[in-house]
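Schema walk-through. Below, the input block comes first and the output block second. Nothing else is stored per chain. Lengths vary across the set, and this one has 316 residues.
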Amino acid sequence: MTALRTNESRWASAYHAPVLATEVADLLRGCAHVLDGTLGGGGHALLLLEQGARVTALDRDPEAIAAARARLHEYQESSRFRALLGNYADLDAVPELGSARFDGILLDLGVSSHQLDDPRRGFSFREGAPLDMRMGDDAPLTAADWLNATPELELLRVFREYGDERRAARLAREVVRRRATRPFVISDDLVGAIRGALGPRSGPPDFARLFQAVRIEINDELGGLAYALPALRDRLEPGGIMAVIAYHSGEDRIVKGAFRDWSTDCVCPPRQPMCTCRGRALGALVTRRSITATPAEVAANPRARSARLRAWRSAE
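--- output ---
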């Protein structure tokens, strides 16, 4: 593992620094064909290619596709790498995939460093940034659209469930009050509403948490993940491994629950007298607990602080 750690800076790019790269490399070592469902800057794809895998990659963001194709062009020319525009949550909408199956599947959830740093994308609370937050053109609404039109109770739900905000009701009321006189357009508008509801002592941690909540809703990240996991599982070859890096507690709960369910022989209700489910485990956990970043990685890449990596293997 020490040798792998020395390569981590090379796997990073101006677009994105891959999180838990060494751990992903260890989990997917030996996989002949890997689906990278969240291509980003291509860092994880590069390490898998260097291990000898053939990589098929997806991303919702055309900019990510272009950046990764340019970076990994030599592997693309040798037919070991291909990047496709598409959403991992809807594999059937990517005709190039057909009925392809994989020895390994990787999801690195959330947004890339480039998306956060690019003010045009509106993912951060940087002053004057547009309230967009769409990962791709398949998202129907911008963050501004959603903030300006969503009923108060739905605003409350998102701020509470995705933002872990105990004053969600106050913030939802503040958004509704402010948009009645001036629509939300830029990041400053949402920051102002957060400060108006949470008080002047609120700061960047609050802004980051609540901007993330809006982004998760805009892109249907939790719903898409829950829908995608069984479909991705069914694309695994016998003995294949699925690895998922989550950054939000809601994401991690979905992954943990799915992997645990698939690793259980019977999932019938406890008091049901006769088993009517599949009656056998579909595979087994590879990671009993989530893998987290080392202090050294967190120091070099603060985004790794909240990362949780879990893996599961399909039955032979």
